[in-house]
Amino acid sequence: MRAFISPKSIIRTFFVVLMALATASCGFHLRGNYMLPDDIAKLSLTSFDQYGQLHRQVKSQFQLHGIEPVAPSSRVPNLHLISESTGERTLSLYQNARAAEYELTYTVRYRIVVPEKGSQTYTTRVNRTFLDNPLTALAKSVERDMIEQEMREQAAKQIMRQLARLTAIFNQMEEQELEALLEQNTDNDERVSTELGLDVKADSAAADPAARQDNQAESAQ
């Protein structure tokens, strides 16, 4: 029996091949769920607490997305976890005015440094709600610990998403620096042209007595 290939199947195959070629040509590789630039195929990780849970969460994300952790060096990109903090605010109250529901906010500050391109500092936040039941104090403590652990995992994933946007961010920085340099050069060229024009006019007036008299008459007026 002769196999039948539909035009729709051919178009779908062509589209997949085209996307794969485009991805390979722009310097990205699929690692895990994100498209990470080649600049961070090897990445050093430093933090305020290298034995803390956040450090371990980010390092596990490295393994998940195919990033090779290396020792810190001036020649390799670095991800530095600056700080973490947890805050809360009351969302609702019981009838006895005791807090019934909280909103927990987990905040992480970190810095990304790429050699010869620059550095950027970011802040990521994760919010969760938490019910405070006074009748189950032990269970409440365990539940809160679990929520905070989930927030750390979510923060680590957000850091990976930020890493995936590194190329676009640094390209934009380079374009802004180039535009500023071009504007500065344009201003310098205009200033030099103006100075040269004044010098030429002054030389012409000095060489031509009639022009010098005209200039003196204009100055007297």
Automatic annotation (TrEMBL):
Q: Where is the composition biased (Low complexity)?
A: 203-221
The cross-references to InterPro entries, in alphabetical order and at most eight, read: LPS_assembly_LptE (IPR007485)
UniProt GO cellular component terms? cell outer membrane; transporter complex
GO BP term, pick one: Gram-negative-bacterium-type cell outer membrane assembly
Q: Where is the composition biased (Basic and acidic residues)?
A: 188-202
Output the Pfam families linked to this UniProt entry: LptE
Q: What is its main location?
A: membrane
Task: Tell me the compartments it is located in.
Answer: Cell outer membrane
Q: What does this protein do?
A: Together with LptD, is involved in the assembly of lipopolysaccharide (LPS) at the surface of the outer membrane. Required for the proper assembly of LptD. Binds LPS and may serve as the LPS recognition site at the outer membrane.
This chain belongs to the protein called: LPS-assembly lipoprotein LptE
| Organism expressing this protein natively | Photobacterium gaetbulicola Gung47
